[in-house]
Each structure stands twice: as C-alpha cells, then as structure tokens.
Write a structure and sequence with these properties.
The complex is a heterodimer of chains A (about 325) and B (about 350). Chain A is an all-alpha fold. Chain A is built from 16 helices and 4 strands. In chain A, the strands form 2 sheets. Chain A has a two-stranded antiparallel sheet with strand order 1-4. Chain B has about 350 residues and is an alpha/beta fold. Chain B is globular. Classes of the chains: A mainly alpha (about 325), B alpha/beta (about 350). Chains A and B meet through helix 2, helix 3, helix 9, helix 13 and helix 15 of A and helix 1, strand 2 and helix 3 of B.
Chain lengths: ~325, ~350
Amino acid sequence: MTERTIRTERPWSWKRFFFQWEWLLVIIFILIHVVNSTLSPYYLNINTFIRTPQSFLDKAFIVLPMTFVILLGNIDVSVGSTVALSSVIMAVAYNAGLPMPLAIVLCLAVSTACGLFNGILMVKYKELSAAIITISTMTIYRGFAYVILEDQASGGFPEWFSFLGWGNIAGFPVMLIVFTVCAFLFWILLHKTTFGRSLYGMGNSMNACRYSGIRTDRVILIVSLLTGLMAGFTALFLTSRMGSTRPNVAQGYELEVIAMVVLGGVSTSGGKGRIIGPILAVFIVGFLSYGLGLVNISAQVLLIIIGALLIVSVTVLNVRIRKRKKKIPA
Amino acid sequence: MKRSVIGTIILLIIVSFVIPFTLTAQAAQEAAGERHAFVFKNTGNPYGEKQMEGFENGIEEQGFEAILRAPDLPTAEAQIKIIEQLIAQNVDSICVTANDYDALEPVAKNAMQAGIKMFSADSALNPASRMTHVNQADSEMIGRTLIQAAYDMVDGAGQIAILSATSQASNQNLWIEWMKEELKDPKYDDIELVRIAYGDDLRDKSVAETEALLRTFPDLECIIAPTTVGIAAAGLVISDKDLQGEVFVTGLGLPSEMAEYIHNGACPYMFLWNPIDVGYLAAYTATALSSEEITGAAGETFSAGRLGEYEIVDAGDEGTEILLGPPFKFDIDNIDEWKTVY
C-alpha cells in the first residue's frame, strides 16, 4: 500500500500572496498618505508619523483582543463601558488616598474582572449570544461608573501619570512603543501558538472543536480576560491624555473598534482574518481622520467617508467568499 | 476575473476619496495672511453655528482666514484631536468653547509652546490653559437673574429643577453655582431645587431628561435651562404634554427656536446675549492677541470693530476675561422682532 500524504497547506504562490486583503489595505494606507500630503502642506513631516499615533492609539489596544473575539464569531460591545468603569474606579481610588501605582494596578484588575465576568456568562449560558450578554454588561458597567461618579469628573493625577499619554522615550511616544509590543505579542499568540489555531477552529465550528478535545470554554475565558485587560490599557492611556475622567468617557469606542476589526478583513461570521489587517486598519482610520482634520473637513463628512470605506471593505470580502464558494462543485 | 474585480474596487476607492477632496480643495489652499481657528463644543448646535458665523465675520472683515471646527460629540477627547490638528497647521490663534475646564490643559500648553495664541470663549478653559476668556455676560448676573425669574414664575413657592448641558461644561457649572448662591437668600425659603439634570446639549437626551423630571417630580413648577438646546427641549415637552400654566420653563434660549413656546405660554420669558456678537468679539480678541496688541493681562484695552472698545478684567477663577455685556430679556412683546435675527 502506498502512502498518501494530505497537504494541509496550499503551495505558496506570488499570485495568492499579492491578492490578499491586507495588500489592499496597504495600498489604501499609502494612498491616504499620498492624498493627505497633496492636500495639506502640513502633513508630510516627521511629526505626523511619530506624534499623531498618540491621538488615535488609545482604542487600538482593544482592537487586538477584539480581533480574537470576532474570529470566534462572537462580539463584545461592553468594552467602552469597561474602559469607563475602570478609569472611574482608578480616579476615585487615587483621590481616596490610594498611591497612583496601586491605582493603576486596580484599574487593570477591574477591567480584567469585567472581561472575565463576560466570559463566565458566555461559558455558563451558552444559549445566550455574546451580543446579548455584552449589551447587558455594557449598560451594567456604564451604570456603575455613573453610580460612582454621578455626573462629575475626577482627576488631579500626579504629574508623571501624564507621561503615559503625552511622553516620549528616545523620541517615540510611550503609547506607540507599548502598542507595538502588545501587537507583537498578540501576533505571536494568534499565528504561532496552538491557542491561536484553536481560535480559527472554533470560529469555523465550535462543536467540531469541542468534540475533538479542544477546551473551548477555557479559550473563551482567556479571550474575554484579554479583552478586559486591554480595555484597561485603553483606560490608562485615555485617562492620562485627558488628565481627568468622567463616567461618559470612551462612549462609542466599542463600535469604532469593531469597525476597525471588520475593515481589517476579519469576517464577522468567524474563523477568517489575520491580526495584521486590523492593525493596518487602526492606522488607516487614524491617519485618514488626522489628514482630513488638517484640511478642516467637518466632523460629519469624516464619518461619511469612514462609513463608505467600511461598506466597501465588507462588500469586497463577501464577494470574494461568494466567488470561492461557487467554484466548489455542488 | 479576480484581477478585474480588485481593480474595479481600487478604482472605486480612489474615486470615493477624490470626490470629497475636490469639494474641500479650496479649504486646503493656503491663505496669505493670518489664520485664526474657532473650535466649538459640537456640531448641530444652532447657538454654536451663530457663534461661528460671528467669528467668521469678524475675522474676514479684517482680511484674514477663519477656520471653523467642531467635533461630532461634545467631548474633550474630540476637542483635543482637533486642537492637535490645528497646531500642526500652525494657525495664529485658537479659540475654544471648552467641553471640559481642565482636560484640555496639556494640549493647550502644547499650542502655546508652539507660539499659538490660545484662549476660550463662551465656555472657559482653566487659567493655565488660556491667555484670556471671552465671557458672554457676567456669570453672577446670569445665575441670579435666572433664579429671580423662576421665583417670579412659581409665585414665590414651589419645586424647581435645572436642566443643564454636560456636567463638565464650565460656563453652565459656574452659572449653577451662582444660582445656588442666590437661593441661599431667605426670600427663597419656599423654593426647592429638586434636581440638576444634564441633557448634554443633545436634543434627544434633553427631551428624555425633561420627561424624567416631570415624571419623578409631579409637583415641579419650573425648569431652568441655562442652555439653548435644553430650553428648546423643555419647551417642546411642556407644549406636547399641554402643561402650559402648570410647568414653566425659563433660561437661556435662541429667539428663533423659542418664539413658539413664548407665544404658547410654556416659556413666559427668557434671556440671551447675541451669540453672533460673542463670536465677533472672539474674532477681534484673536487678532489683538496675535498682533500682540494685548497679552491677556487685566487692564489692557482693545477695539472690537462695530462693538467698540473692550477692557480685559480679572475673572473669578484667577484668570482674566472680557465681558460682552448684560443678558437681554425676551418676552411675548419683543420676541417677534428678534426671532428672525438669530
């Protein structure tokens, strides 16, 4: 009997390499810079590329774990509220006398707990969709933030805390450095570990994975925990940039984050996409709005353009998937 | 096939970028002279549109370029982004209607370090973030006047509530402080301030907050809304529910938006200054600061076009300010002549 090997990976080809969604994103990314620099004489300088990321990277921290969530075919709309709650608790704890380093730890602990709570609900009540669970916790977390601070602001952080959001190390913003490190870790986690492989598997078929011995509950818990933790990072950087916090900060972040992940080519039905896409999308949306801001375009027009970009991206992805399905003989 | 699909899409994307850009290409063109920016709280606020109109007129009649900006949400985060973009454009001055008294301090300091004249109008920045502040009216006078109006409407006794903008809006908060100060007078012992609600200067939220106030406090007799969005929302709810005569609204409103409610009795009278003049005065403050005619110190004077001479005075918060003038009262006798003006 001759041995037959089943190839699990398709051969590498130039054609397949370049006809990828990520390349389209790269083209858009370059296009944005070209258009922006022809539009505004203030665009093309080193400060744009080094300083500007500070103004949009805060929510990018959530984009990383949200990619995981959407790969699983789930969704998490409670992240904005998690940011608000952890930020508010940090500010209140600091003003009640807790030293700032401990308050920062508390902020991360609270956000991680929020994420974990979502995960526990998802694992315990499998019949409920992630959307329903996180919509409820979204209002619960935001509600707590309002109960704690009511309609007031809290701040007065020590001088060094603003370093997180405004400071530089060796000429690079702290936020950019931390984000690069996080992005690298998430890339390894998704593309180089069995945990990452199981995310793709679970996104395609949760049951198949469960029956083949993958501890699906544990994976869901870990992803929720990471989402919470990264929401805590967002809370830290956002609070540092603002110098104070209110219960209504980070409103709408969940949708912006999900939009970036989708723009990054991650399929909302799960199991498809890579981490590099959403990371590119973060910079595309960030530089696009910065560039349009430089020519003083109004806020509404900006929203329209980003919406259009999103529709184009979703359509293209679906067209590609449909075409591929047609090729498979019935 | 695949190639052509992707090709078409890339083309589509390019086109979708080019269309909005051609529309704004004029805006991108460099003006030879000074450029002065005005950043309002959020878009879609008629009061803000009027201020921006006044600012634009004031700047353009001096032959300079005005840049008018407003974020889509009334948050400090969004204003920080806009100010960073204005710093990168190296404008001559930035005037902000602040969404948060303190949160803009880091970015405002960056702007001043870059040599940009930074000041606020209407809703103040903290003294460390601003060179001066264009104040629409004496805050103490606004606060006290509004309580006196409510006292008059409820005949000296009853429950009143305040419907404000965001909880961080510096101007509204200052007026509310003065309202509370006025309420300490024994004359107001029978007036009970039951709640301060925040409609965030968003129309739907202000309507919802008004409805909640009416539900929670059935004996409520007067709502004071020191914001044009809030007063219009309260006027709408009271008219919709046919509560004219039982609940009154007063505060600061735009005549054009409030004429209907003044006529139907929901709002017996209200106050406002001319928002166009606030913007206009801010325009002349901007150019006086950038020509270094003034530095924002108390005692300096400058000329503000058709409005005449102004003097910078000490504000209550250790900064300085420029006072536009006293608030103006609108009632059923004069509303018709003003409702077409602003």
